[in-house]
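Dear colleagues,

As part of the handover before I leave the project, I'm documenting each prediction I ran so the next person doesn't have to rerun anything. This entry is a single chain, and its sequence is reproduced below.
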Amino acid sequence: MVDFRPVGYVIGLLVLVLGLTMLAPMGVDIWYQNGNWPVFFESAVLTTLPGAMVMMACSNGMAGRLTIQQTFLLTTGVWLVMPIFGAIPFVLGATEARYVDAFFEAMSGLTTTGSTVFDGLQDLPHGLLLWRGLLQWFGGVGIIVVAMVFLPELRVGGMQIFRSEGFDTFGKILPRAGQIAQQISVIYLVLTMVCALTYGAFGLEPFDAIVHAMTTMATGGFANSDSSFAELPIGVEYSATLFMILAALPFVRFVQILGGSAEPLFRDSQVRAFLGTLLLVIIVLTLWLLFALGFGFELALRKALFNTVSILTGTGYASADYMGWGALAVVVFFFIGLIGGCAGSTACSIKVFRYQLLMTSISTQLQRLYAPHGVFEPRYEGRKVSEEVLSSVMAFFVLFFVSLAVFAILLGLTGESFITSVSGAAAALANIGPGLGPEIGPAGNFAGLSDAAKWILSAAMLIGRLELMAVFVLFTAQFWRA
């Protein structure tokens, strides 16, 4: 039988920390004298007390290391429980949201999806805007640690490739999970501070600069106004592009740079593939905006650059309504959202390395077809890839697109249109943020969807953020019999 106490202890501790974090937006509301501070005081009480009680009740179960079962339960449990409490300020605060909307917003924040159900963001109290930013910021650093510590050990979706000594990505750099979390958190904090200072230098008010820096480094996409980045200074648009790219790179490479070696960053094949894909799409869209829509060169380059980076990294900001750019742009944005950034970053979706391994596997199979007596081995960065890794990647692809179809069908059954159902399912499962169409596209939000659709999308955001298999394994009989 599974011992749930270690899982409960960690979840209780994190809920306690989440509750204490609510004191920060409370202080901001006091500073701005908007009268909303009691909301966060009440929310903090309602969050810290259950967290502390669960933590103390389960403290006698922290004797040894977590088992595989406990690790799977913890990974999913954290991302399921935290939005339950993270939603409280939206229910009690100025939004006066129904719980389904509050939970959707909190799940979108912690999974760094960036889809929102709120209108009039620029009119919300500063505390609620900060809370949205904090949810995404914590979700961003949390998913880096999960991707670098837990998923490789759990052999989820090919992530075990990053624990292999042959690839030398994690093991010899940071031998313990605590060290990984500590160093990544410091780098993440420093990059966020630099991003905020850059935004401030280009004209953003300090509060807006801080919140946008949090959601940029988390590749989350929550903005402080309904217009997202459309009305912000040009310098902010360019600088956001740079920091979104940095956030989509493997954070372990930043650790190596601090250790005095930048060479692994430039040798990393997934970094090169990510940047190459980015460059290709930007060139295509810039030329499209120039010659098909008559944009000026600087405007075409800036809009193509910013919105391509935003969608490819899964951030979800928008500086223009690209639904009006024509069919080519819409199709391109839909498909690049299913690519994502690098493993070990805050970026989401399928991830570049899986496409590389898929192409490697296809290439190997083709070679075996025309030279059946030859010996061909799939390789990644010059090293042999095991059949276990390839099987995991193939299973991930199949499960991802089957899940995408299922979620799209479920949304269709709730009465949503075809484009809303398909793009909404993709936006949630790949944690992109905006979908396509007039309702949930870059100029809209998810407020008009039915309650059933919001619950479906909340589930899709959770499953997609945790690389699908880490969640689906909990529904197998073998898992509970192990």
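The longest helix spans residues 126-154. The two ends are 9 Å apart (CA to CA).

All the best with the project,
I.
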